Amino acid sequence: MNRSHVPPPASATAEQTPRGFSRRSVLTALAGISLTVAGCAPGGNDKSSASSSSGKSSVTLNFWHYFTDRAELLQQFADQYHDQTGVTVKLQLIPGDTLGQKFQAAAQAGRLPDVAAGWTGVGDGLAPYAKQGTILNLQAAMNDGWSQRFYPAHLQAGSFQPGNSFGVPPGPYLVPLDANNMQILYNTKHFAKAGISAPPATFADFLDASAKLATAGVVPFTSGFASWPLDSFAQMYQYDVIGADAMDATFSGKRKYTDPAWLDFLGLFQQLRESKALAQGILAADMPAAESLFANGQAGMIFDGSWAVGVFKQKNPGFTDYDVMLPPSVGGATGKLAIPGGVGAQLLVVGTSPHKDEAVKFVRWLTDPDQQVKYATTSANLPANREVAGKISTTPVLQKFAAEMDKVFPSLPHSMPAAVNTSLHAGLQNILAGKSAPAAVAAALQHAQSTGQAK
Amino acid sequence: MLEATAPGNRPARPARSQRRYDQDWKQGLLFVVPALAFFLLFTVYPFVRTISLSFSDWDGLSNHANFVGLDNYSAALHDSLWWRSLLNGGLFVAAALLLMTPLGLLLAVGVERVRRGRAAYRTAFYVPTILSGIVVAVIWKWLYQPYGGPINQAFDQLGLHSVARAWLGDGGTALWAVSLASIWQGVGYPFLLYLAGLQSIPDEVYEAAAVDGASERRIFFSITLPLLRPVITTVNILTILGAMQMFNLVLAMTNGGPGYSTEVPVLHIYREAFGLFHFGYASALAVIFGVLLLAVSIAQLRLARRGADR
């Protein structure tokens, strides 16, 4: 049958346009295209800067954070801030290990929040944003007396120094919200059972205590060595064995990772491998898994931070038989052990936000004494505001953590390049797994430093 | 009556019919435009952009990037970690091809033969496939736990204390442990495809073979397997592509460790882009990887076609 014999639908005939398209088809197609374009168009965040009739601001600030244990507390702060100022703070909880990726993707798409938790320290990871102005340089705000609230070392930890190797304008980019440090917590009952009368003071004592714990049927030492705690643990012994000056010289390329001091540092991990210290599966354990092992009374020691006190309370409220000790020094180049920590949670303000001034005011409000007291007492963290640090009643273990804040290692002018850091993490895991020797790892680190490629 | 036309010339269309044809064509085009816009924006543009970025040193944030020619491709050739990740990907492929696809076929043959509860079996074997990779990772991390994990406890109860170990924390077992979790999750897919393939084989063929006195074994190897060849080809290609592109299980279970013992290509690309800010280099690795997967798929198709022609 010839197609031309098929009668067209009446409606189509009636609405036929002079060019041959029905009006309906044109409208449908245009609606489709509009939806497509609208769906792809960059939409701004839900932000309004209009003032409400009450005279209070009606600005909405978007705040991305990863503080799972403090989400409720932050919501209380957001509600309180809204009542006081009219500014709405919309909190979005994002897993800590993906916040960096989410921030990067949002920066590319132009959909950043106004305030975010810092997911990394000053270094490779933050420099591109600070250089572009995506993260706000808070120097001007800090000059207005804000900086007086913080320990200078804590503020320095979130600042790019003048003449930094990244070419970032110097100044503070991260605001400390709380303080912490990492030490070794130990189970007092297991120590007594294993006949360990005093916490080990030297690395040799530590290995000896581990052997005693193993003999007593206790898992000697655990931590989340699948991820960043291994890097923090290693950094501690870099300061101890290599020393800050030599570390900085190596990071800036003036010394080599194959120098004897670096080999000595890597050799410590071979000693750990050969001892009975490490928990089975420590290389696949993340921090929550390690903390569960310790809080359930299965492990004798854990390398963890001051926040662990709150975590243990949450995981096993009845678990109180533990204390904290400084990690044992090997008495290397410095003869003095420095511990990781200083600043705990940090916040940053997005420099490209249309509400950056309001965002700065909100972050500053969070560091006010009243909020800091509530924050520290509710979350079992050490406050960043030094005015209130001595006014908070905490547990004896937290007090011991607080007492060692002066031992936190200082930030260096140069930081370890990201490719070297990746290689070091894998290299240490390989040493602990018996797959690599310190010399091979040192060579891989040097290769990463020279080429920018992890090996 | 048919009109004679010169070779290569289309028969003349009546003027009214031609107008109608033009209208339909344009109308059709209008309806296709939204889908085409999506396709160009979300498929063609990222594809072209990835290729163009692979010749640059873009860090993922800067407004400008420098053209670096073939430097990224040259660097990939000398990147020992990239080669290591490809090797690990190959091992995942081998495990999947040697264990998962035969297991899928075995399950399909078994379910095809049962008379009752076929739907229940189908559901049970397919459920892991629809689970999120992260959920599967959590389940298997718990199973593999060195202290109190069910697998190690089972070995202990059987008196096999020396077999119990930190499956994910040991560089020698981590890759195979992740692979096993992946097989558990993925076996439902080949199972379903094989089951559909088995059900499409006509009963008459089996009946004829039975009349001729063929044994069960002979029927399986001479009738079932040859007639399943197109399904086997499809399953093999999908298995290779899936195993080579493994990412979320590895990320959640081992993050590529211990050391680099479970580093896989997609994780390496991800780390270069999002961890080290080497977007240009990561784009080059993505292009190389894409070409590699395409080549493997074509090779597999050709092998299958050659086998069918014999």
UniProtKB/TrEMBL annotation, chain A:
Entry's InterPro entries? Answer: Bact_solute-bd_prot1, SBP, TAT_signal
Which Gene3D superfamilies did the record assign? Periplasmic binding protein-like II
> Where, by residue number, does the polypeptide cross the bilayer?
none
Q: Where is the composition biased (Pro residues)?
A: 1-10
Q: Which domain of life is it from?
A: Bacteria
Region annotation Disordered: residue ranges?
Answer: 1-21
The name of this protein is: Carbohydrate ABC transporter substrate-binding protein (CUT1 family)
Automatic annotation (TrEMBL), chain B:
PANTHER family per the UniProt record, alphabetical: ABC TRANSPORTER PERMEASE PROTEIN (PTHR30193), INNER MEMBRANE ABC TRANSPORTER PERMEASE PROTEIN YCJO (PTHR30193:SF37)
Q: Where in the cell is it found?
A: Cell membrane
Entry keyword set: Cell membrane, Membrane, Transmembrane, Transmembrane helix, Transport
| Organism the protein comes from | Kribbella kalugense
Q: Which GO terms describe its biological process?
A: transmembrane transport
A Pfam family per the record: BPD_transp_1
Q: Does the keyword Cell membrane apply?
A: yes
Give the InterPro entries listed for this entry: ABC_transporter_permease, MetI-like, MetI-like_sf
Q: Topologically, how does it sit relative to the membrane?
A: Multi-pass membrane protein
Q: Which GO terms describe its cellular component?
A: plasma membrane
The family annotation for this protein states: Belongs to the binding-protein-dependent transport system permease family.
Domain annotation ABC transmembrane type-1: ranges: 86-300
- Matches recorded under PROSITE patterns: ABC_TM1
Report the leader peptide range. Answer: none
Protein name per the record: Raffinose/stachyose/melibiose transport system permease protein
> What stretches pass through the bilayer?
28-48, 91-111, 123-143, 174-196, 227-253, 273-296
